[in-house]
Amino acid sequence: MTENLMDKIVSLSKRRGFIFQSSDIYGGLANTWDYGPYGVELKNNVKRAWWKACVYERNDIYGMDAAILMHPKVWEASGHVENFFDLKSDCKQCRKRFKAEDLKDKNKCPECAGELTEARPFNLMFKTHQGPVEEASNIVYLRPETAQGMFVNFSNILDSRHPKLPFGMAQIGKAFRNEITPGNFTFRTREFEQMEIEYFVRPEEAEEQLKQWIDFRFNWYLSLGLKKDNLRLRPHDKNELAHYAKACVDVEYRFPFVTRGASSEGTWSELEGIANRADFDLRQHSQFSGKDLQYFDDQAKQKFYPYIIEPSGGVDRTVLAFLVDAYHEEKVREDTRVVLKFNKDLAPVKVAVLPLLRNRPEIVDLAKKISTDLKKSFVTVYDDTGAIGKLYRRQDEVGTLFCVTVDVQSLEDKQVTVRDRDTMLQDRVNIESLKEYLQDKFY
After folding, report:
1. Least packed by Cβ within 10 Å: which of 125, 128, 370, 389?
2. Domain with CATH 3.40.50.800 in the chain
3. CATH classification of 349-442 is 3.40.50.800, yes or no?
């Protein structure tokens, strides 16, 4: 059942313009995906909702957009050059590669039963060269996380904004990891986008701040419509913590993936990790750069390294979770209606304007005029490429909140029919008050 649901999500994503296989006309590039017209709107809405909650509605978070390419010593200081690797084994027969930690039998291939090589370290950073000559002195890396760009700007924020503890930085941006076993649609890819916060606190306040951030981030997902039954918190065991972390709790979603050992109800997988990174990062960058990254407390007249609470979520897997959670199938008479019941803030399209009769120029002209007017206030589409029933179903499948139908009667009474996505109930609304009617629904 769960596998079937995932197949339906992948099919709908391509059919309706949410997500396409990258480089599809060339046979595609494994585990890379392009966001289509509706997908990019959904993705932008998720990022916008995150930024609104984490930056605009708070007084203690500053926005950042750090460069993808950074000085190579950044990654030495962070520990990525030395520690950021997986142990891998290759099958001598089918040539497939596996994470050693995923193998039950370290000697036998799980795919073809062939012999496996001895596990070897495999660094997950993409390496490239800066400048025209490829030599060791010109090595740079595509960042594997956005966090380091905020740590190295710690003193810049202190000098330019003069914040008092606790305060944080927020960033949304691309990261790259040369994963050995990516997969499950857009859940795990080599190129992905992160939504990260680095929140600097006094060491004695770190434990309480971690609890507050866990509650805040968990409730954010609920506020945007994810079902509580599909969400859970999972604290990390000590043996799985990153080398720098004192504690970490994952927000997990029950995805409809079928994997070894998973129940028929799906697979719990991470949406976001909220970690207490202690003072590891600022200490490391101080040591490697020679710059003092301590915080000076005016009242106590002392300097110290703040602890860091890090809520770090994946944009792509969050978008996938909202897609899965919004998917509904409903019986309508003899038909099955597929509808994406997105939260109003996330729905890619707010309004669709549809002429009832596409062969009547005066109806089409009025519908286009209404659409043009509404576009100034809402994300609006115009569609006249099918019969009205087919157009409704198409808009249901992409999660459009309201359909506005212009008919013959509209030419006489200057009213249109507004159909609600979730209830399918219809109201007759005066064209002059249409924008106000919709605004009341949205806000």
Report:
1. 389
2. 349-442
3. yes
Q: Give the global pTM.
A: 0.89
Is residue 54 over pLDDT 80?
A: yes
- Show the tokens assigned to 96: 């497939």
| CATH of region 2-64+165-324 | 3.30.930.10
Mean pLDDT of the 281-305 span = 94
Both tokens of residue 302? 């002392």
- How do residues 218-246 score in pLDDT, each as one tens digit? 999 999 999 999 999 999 998 888 888 89
Start and end residues for every CATH 3.30.930.10 domain found in the chain: 2-64+165-324
Distance CA 171, CA 115 (A): 44
Would you say 190 and 182 are in contact if contact means Cβ atoms under 8 Å apart?
yes
**Which residues fall within 8 angstroms of residue 221, CB to CB, at 6 or more apart?**
231, 251, 253, 271, 321
In whole angstroms, give the CA distance from residue 349 to residue 352. 7
Q: Which residue is it, tokens 């660094």?
A: 123
Neighbours of 133 (CB within 10 A): 8
